Amino acid sequence: KYCPGLGLVHKAFLKNDAFLRACHGQETNHVPVWCMRQAGRYLPEFREFRAGKDFFETCRSPAACCELTLQPLRRFPFDAAIIFSDILVIPQAMGMDVQMVAGKGPTFPEPLKEPEDLLLLQPKVDVNKELGYVFKAITLTRHKLDGKVPLIGFTGAPWTLMAYMIEGGGSTTHSKAKRWLYRHPEASHKLLKMLTDVIVEYLLGQVAAGAQALQVFESHAGCLGPVEFQEFSLPYLRDIARKVKDQLKESGQDVPMIVFAKDGHYGLEDLSQSHYEVVGLDWTIDPRSARERTGGKVSLQGNMDPCALYAPKERISEIVKKMLEGFGTRGYIANLGHGLYPDMDPENVGAFVEAVHTHSRHLNLK
Ligand code: 1CP
Q: Which coarse location class describes where this protein primarily resides (predicted)?
């Protein structure tokens, strides 16, 4: 297979394909595991590397992104790497200013306020020009990984990105963004469509650069209800998967896609029929009921409460065992129900990974 920027790559070069096999529901010796935010502030080497550097400057440096992606893999036997970047690089590529403010998180000095503001966005984004730095980071990281584990690329989903672009940062209610859904439904769809177009190109660019799986983060599904989800989130999630897959099929590529709609399990049945191989779950759903509701149609990923990592190691091991028994070891990727927090003990992250590997090997022998 030829990928631009990658030269000749071959599947056989992958030394650990457990994650990709699990995405496709195939048997594995152990359940693969990775963590959302596995590159992050809970690691002293991350804090040291990032110290004094602007967050989005770091995102724009392929060498820095590569280093930060690899850091957690030097410590733990994770079964996948996720490229270090952020979902908010897309609003930036569309012409918006986004800054990372210490203690506050991502901030848009000039968020979208009214539908007229859509005219301020780039109508046609050249992803190679605006986001080529992410593609370079992916290619470099893929080379440096040398087939150790697969590399996951990612994007924010349209509704989640729209919410940030209107709220101007994090929010508990998302009332400014939801105001658009109820007051300006047409403009909302226009924005969601613009985002979808960029996202499709962005994901295809990530695959061309070497990403071996793709995760779509609908982090703000939880502030929508089932009706709004049906209208403003699901159709775009489907569109993204279908368009990316159609394009990849043409070049004979098969790249599994994961959809993670946090707090959106009211939509679980629909998500399991949205052309994604894997549905990611937060911790508010029981593994067995998630399996039932998705009818064995997809692989599942998740969903230990991140806060369980504050428990003593023996307790983590018990929680993991129960989770594995609930999901079963086939078509399953262990993860947390959301990202790691900065105050988590790296040792407990290691205990989590080890528990997944040990218990799942054991369960597979039964
Ligand atoms: O200085 C720092 O280190 C800031 C912390 C940080 C990090 C490590 C931010 C700010 N982003 C990231 C990297 C990041 N972001 C990754 C790296 C890969 C990995 O997982 O190891 C990923 C996948 C993201 C994706 C992301 N960014 C999401 C989706 C996942 C989720 O958490 O739901 C979201 C919502 C963001 C926005 C964002 N970026 C950063 C923060 C603190 C936030 C959340 C802000 C908020 O809503 O309050």
A: cytoplasm
pLDDT digits (tens, 9 = 90+) for 240-259: 999 999 999 999 999 999 99
Distance 86 CA to ligand 1 centre (A): 6
Nearest ligand 1 atom to alpha carbon 37: 20
Q: Which residues of 128-141 are buried (b: 16+ CB within 10 A; e: fewer)?
A: eebbeebbbbbbbb
Encode pLDDT of 257-282 as tens digits: 999 999 998 999 999 999 999 999 99
Exposure string of 37-68, with b = 16+ CB inside 10 Å and e = fewer, is bbbbebbeebeeebeeeebbebbbbbebbbbb
Amino acid in the structure at residue 161: L
Would you say the CB of residue 39 lies under 6 angstroms from ligand 1?
yes
Looking at residue 169, the DSSP 8-state letter turns out to be B
Planar angle of CA 8, 72, 56, nearest 5 degrees: 80
Q: Quickly tell me which residue has 């963590």 as its tokens.
A: 35
Q: Which helix (H) or strand (E) holds 200?
A: helix 185-209
Structure confidence at residue 1 as a pLDDT band (50, 70, 90): very low
What's the gap in Å between 27 CA and the centre of ligand 1?
A: 32
318, pLDDT greater than 80: yes
Angle between helices 127-145 and 185-209 (to 10 degrees): 40
pLDDT tens track for 104-121: 999 999 999 999 999 999
Residue 220: phi, psi to the nearest 5?
Answer: -110, 30
The pLDDT score that the predictor gives to residue 13 is 85
